[in-house]
Amino acid sequence: MLISKKAQQISVLYFGAVNALTLFFISFSAKAAELGVPIPGSNGTSEASYGEYIESAYGFAMKLGIGLTTLMIIYAGYKYMTSQGNPTAINEAKDIIVGSLSGFALLLLIYWVLDLLDLPKHYPAGTTTP
User: What is the 3-state secondary structure (H, E, C) of 4-27?
Assistant: First the structure.
């Protein structure tokens, strides 16, 4: 049984409106979150701000990104050396190198944006930046 195009459009609009209204009213019941959990790896005695959480998560992502970029470049170099002149394998190796370096460049761009935003990571709550 096929549904007409008009009926499909109406059902998509209906379900979209129901979902939008549901999300709208659920957002009223949400309360501001207070971080009372220390950052993993810290001494566990101090509470962390949002900026500290972002800084910690970015530090982990940067370490992971450096490691993965290094491994992918090594793998691509091995693939390039063992390609034996096969143009497909050579292009795959080049694509892997370009992809891993562009991913690392994206991590560096994120660092630049976070530095530009100057998240309040080292300032006590309730104070402004100097």
Answer: CHHHHHHHHHHHHHHHHHHHHHHH
| Alpha helix ranges (H) inside 48-86 | 50-81
| DSSP string across 87-115 | HHHHHHHHHHHHHHHHHHHHHHHHHHHHH
Under 8 Å CB-to-CB from 36, ≥6 apart: which residues? 47
Helix (H, G, I), strand (E, B) or coil at 121: coil
Confidence of residue 82 (pLDDT cuts 50, 70, 90): very high
Which helix (H) or strand (E) segment holds residue 82: the answer is none
**Which amino acid, one-letter code, is at 57?**
A
Q: How many CB atoms lie within 10 A of CB 69?
A: 19
Give the largest CA-CA distance in the chain. 68
Q: What is the pTM of this model?
A: 0.55
Query: Quick check: helix, strand or coil at residue 47?
Result: coil
Tokens of 8: 């499909």
Residues recorded for the chain? 130
Closest CA to 37 of 50, 47, 25, 49: 47
